[in-house]
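User: Sequence in, structure out. Go.
Assistant: Echoing your sequence, followed by the structure tokens.
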Amino acid sequence: MTTGPEAPAPERVGALVVGTGVAGLTTALGLRARGVDDVLLVTKTPWGAGAGGTGGGSTAWAQGGVAAVTGADDDVALHVADTLAAGAGACDPEAVRVLCTEGPARLLELARRGLVLDGADPADPADARRWSRGLEAAHSRPRVLHAGGDATGARLAAAVVAAARAAGVRVLGGAAPADLVVEGGRVIGAELLLGGAPATGGARRRVLAGAVVLATGGAGQVFARTTNPPEATGDGLAAAWRAGAVVADLEQVQLHPTVAAPGGAHAPFLVSEAVRGEGAVLRDEHGARFLADPASALHDPRAELAPRDVVARAVGAVVARQDGRPALLDATGLGERLRARFPSIDAMCAAAGLDWVREPVPVTPAAHYWMGGVATDVRGRTSLPGLWACGEVARTGVHGANRLASNSLLEGLVFGDRAAADVAASLAGAVAAPHAPVGVEELVCTAGPALPRAELQALAWEHAVLLRDAAGLEVAAKTLDGAPAATEEPADVAALEDRALGVCARLLVASALRRPESLGAHFRTDAAGALPRGADRPVLLRRAS
């Protein structure tokens, strides 16, 4: 397997896949399995430097599991119904059907490639009847599968990385997507900025390809508080936007309700939703269960297992009324089994001086997952010929306005493989008509504003994430529009990331202003009396030419 920026990349390849999380790796493996030999996989961070041996990204950070129907007491129709309900009426039903129907087969393939799920028979790890299944928020059945307790993402990443190495997938590490190459309206390659991250400088390399697949993940670094890794800066989304691709639902940003805030010199860390699925509860600083108490203004009949948007807003409200002091996640009732069930979280708690078996963990919300992205159909096709997208960078429609817990790794597996199938067919001569969403609005936004990163992150966190209103969004829009545009081409990866973050922030605010009603994760405090856009009308934007 060729790795590192020192390995000469070909000027022309059959398929260029940008991103080495579960979606990108699955796409590359799927292409190889379908006879596409000339595949180049590109990652911004040095290859092998990320958890699980990846090139970075969010996959290996995932503590939760993979949701799939594998038990006799479950049914695909139930998984579909749960996903649609969590999505608040904004999901694409066909995309959800594809996700839930094809997901189990993709997991079986991964088990045969070496992923050992919890409860698996050592003699036959692919025997799904033995897999342990957990319950998470908004699921009607225990269907969430884990590997290594709370290390599912790292174990899954290691399995697909090993499979990619075995398949001989070529990888170029330390290469960030600066721009897509467009000729005659068709994407024919990408301009890559070499140097890795962080970098003080880098050379450009142009790679031409019969097909380009973006699997670059999300853009959590737009916000001052996020669960995402440092490299989640929206590079792929920004490149697709500059090339003229349609984007959708970028107002829909999911927050994770329980990010540990130990204070002092200790960094925040995510505490998986699976902890609440096992029985942990949320309390305010006085010990009251604000979600479970019928007398509480924050009460929800589903209590701690309500959808993430509900729980995140409730935790945020408690933090606000406590003058910024965190809420409390109380898992003490689970006793010592916490340590075995969640070894990674247990280790992070210990490092922060917390014994969560005996004391509650202070928690606050943080930006976690972007449901919107580059608009695609169920084959991964974007509105630009020659360009596909999958994973968090894509808006497939499976998540709607609120992602169901543990559906994201599944999305990467299912739609990464689907993109591979469609790209392989296209390279073999099949006609691949681009995705053509209806109701697209053109927006002037080419270069990101040249705001300092910390200032941009604080602005987005204050006005454009947990609670929104027209006044705050207009403040954000005027600040972003009033900043001088970044006119020079980025000389290094840090500058490239800053440009991308500026584009993503502008698109976020523009999309939020275009949806006056509350919908899922998009919550407008001034929605009363507003004429709703409607859950069935996604916010679709394209760069004005």
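User: And one key feature?
Assistant: DSSP finds 13 helices and 19 strands in the chain.
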